[in-house]
Each structure stands twice: as structure tokens, then as C-alpha cells.
Amino acid sequence: MEKLVCSASDFTQMLEDTLNDGAVVPLCVTGTSMRPFLLEGRDTVWLSRCCSEDIKRGSIVLFRRSDGTLVLHRIHRVKSDGELTVNGDAQSWCEAVEASRVIAVVRYIERNGSKINCAGGGFRFRSEIWQLSKPCRPFLLKVWRKLTK
């Protein structure tokens, strides 16, 4: 497979153009902020264009920070003014993001050749339990790291 090298802004534009054409785009997970739900080297997320119905607690979204960085985090809260509170599953802190900065929503997670539907009841239930555990995440993640070594 031939590699394409481009700037982050060119990549973002190509991604947005592809999503706007109605495509569902796979993206390999990198980083550690979404552990334990998403792991680098194991999971691929399938992104599609985000609509207003997707902007809800528990959805995993790809958004652009003001510095241009692309980030994949979960929506923790949607405020009445449309501002989103998001955070990574491995984080105990949150950040505010304008809904207009959301580029895509995760529809599926591909893991070991199987696709997990992010709208499925089991997945949403597990992610809600994880969100409620935010105050004790540091402890839970420490235990998880020890168990997975």
C-alpha cells in the first residue's frame, strides 16, 4: 500500500470532504486518552458525518481544537447553549467544545475483525457506567493497568 504524506490541515480537509460525500471513514486509534474503551494498535473507529441527533451524552466524536488538533473524545454533557463538555475515557478532567467544532461521530469500533455498534444498548450501557465512574477513574485505571500487564 502506498503511503500518503500530507499536512494536518490537508488531512482534515480531505476527511471532511469524504465525510460530506456520505462515506464512512475508518481511522486507526492513536493515543491513550480513550482507554480502556479504545486502544491504540487494537481498535479502528468508523467515522461518519455528525448530525444534530448524534450530539448527545455518550457519543464519541472527532472534533478540532482551536489550535487545529484533532481529538477523539466522548461527550459527557450537552449544555443548553450547545456547548459540549467532553473528555477522554482515561481522563478525570473535561474540556468545553463548541458543537460547531465536531467533525464526525464514531458509528462503529472495529476490534479483532468484529464491528461494535456504538448505538447498541450494551455499548451505551457500558459507556454510561464508565461516565458515572469519573470520580474514581484514576483508581479504576490503575487497577486495569495492573490486570492487563
**Alpha plus pi helix count:** 3
Distance between the termini: 33 Å
Which secondary-structure class do the elements indicate? alpha+beta
- CATH-defined fold name: Umud Fragment, subunit A
CATH architecture classification name: Ribbon
What is the percentage of strand-forming residues?
25-35%
Q: Flag low-confidence runs.
A: none
The helical percent reads 10-25%
Radius of gyration: 15 Å
Average pLDDT value?
A: 90
Whole-number count of domains: 1
**CATH homologous superfamily caption:** Umud Fragment, subunit A
Overview of this structure, please?
This protein is α+β, with helices and mostly antiparallel strands. The chain has one domain (8-147): Umud Fragment, subunit A. 24% of the residues lie in helices and 32% in strands. It has 3 helices and 8 strands. Strands 1, 2, 3, 4, 5, 6, 7 and 8 form an 8-stranded antiparallel β-sheet that branches. The longest helix is centred in the first third of the chain and has 13 residues, at 8-20. It is globular and about 40 Å long. The mean pLDDT is 90.
